[in-house]
Amino acid sequence: MATKGDTFERKEKKYLLTAEQCTAIKAGVSGRMALDAYGATRIDSLYLDTPDRSLISRSLEKPLYKEKLRVRSYGAFSDAEIVFVEIKKKYKGIVYKRRVRMSKQAFDAYRAGASYEEAQAMFPVSLDDAGGDLAVGKVQIARELDAFFRRYDGLAPSMMISCVREAWAPIDPDDADCVDRITFDEDISYVDLFEEGAAARRPVTGPGQVVMEIKCAGGYPPWLCELLSSVGAYPRSFSKYGNAFKRVLASHGDVELARSDSGKVSIKNIPRRNRRPSADGSVLIAPSDGFEVA
Asked: E strands, the chain, where?
């Protein structure tokens, strides 16, 4: 795994848990891992997309390569002074993240057309460490952001995804028989920023459901495999932004959702008229019957 400051390369597997499964897993990992110093933290993630939401539409096709752009705050986005602008890419199951830290004012200036260097100089995170955000590595990531904005025309705030996260890390940083990090996300909700008028906050997952993510460089240690098997937890594809988008489609009548007693939501049917081709002729929205949403 490559991890240098705000650059990450690792495997990330997600699990959709019940409250009981979540409690059992936390108890099972507690001998080797512990909740980090931040405790339960609210995370707001602002996803940017094109006017027709081509980024998330393509992501739902499960291509070999996909990418997203989000702006994350730790704490309520409306109150945040510092945000992290992040490109998230996934290729052949490996997640690559590159991000830069900016003041919210600097990001607004950057989106309005200022260069990364100009925006950071005008609105530094602090006068003491402004130089760190202009280091060579950070500027290189900024050039990737520049390319992203050029690649997708009309990027604008699409959705705000919120959750309360607990992050667990190894008690012993040198423990080779452990994973890098396990996160538990609860109270996941979204606001559709393309919705006219006062957008409401709506749930992404079913009642009591928790999204667990295991982050590691290689395979799981045997003890963790046994723990997951004992509670019936198995990896599955899950995207907070993607699931929120499917719920928006359902609210517009573009898809039908089928609910089960477990709280999972599946796409039941997509009318043929909504299977819109992209410019290159590929289907933008075409998940198969029974594809689980949450």
From this structure: 2-3, 7-17, 33-35, 41-49, 65-74, 82-91, 94-103, 156-170, 181-192, 201-203, 210-216, 256-259, 265-269
Residue 36: alpha-carbon gap to chain centroid: 20
Beta bridge mates, 99? 86
Q: Which residues pair with 240 in a beta bridge?
A: none
Tens of pLDDT along 145-167?
A: 999 999 998 999 999 999 999 99
Contact 77, 86 (CB under 8 A): no
Alpha-carbon torsion (100, 83, 43, 60), positive or negative: negative
Phi then psi for residue 106, to 5 deg, are -65, -40
pLDDT along the chain (294 residues), means of 10: 52 93 97 93 96 92 90 94 92 85 94 93 74 81 92 93 97 92 96 85 92 90 96 92 91 66 47 39 33 34
Closest of 94, 3, 252, 109 to residue 270, by C-alpha: 252
Alpha helices by DSSP H, 90-239: 104-111, 116-122, 136-151, 222-231
Q: What angle do CA 13, 182, 100 make, to 5 degrees?
A: 85
**Residue 133 DSSP symbol:** G
Per the DSSP assignment, residues forming a β-bridge with 160 are 46, 191
What residue has token string 């081709």? 277
Q: Tokens representing 156?
A: 């604008």
What is the value of pTM for the model shown? 0.82
What is the token pair recorded at 255?
Answer: 């898809």
In order, the DSSP letters of 67-117 are: EEEEEEEES-GGG-SEEEEEEEEEETTEEEEEEEEEEHHHHHHHHTT--HH
Q: What is the mean pLDDT of the chain?
A: 83
Angle between helices 19-29 and 222-231 (to 10 degrees): 160
> Pairing between strand 210-216 and 265-269?
unpaired
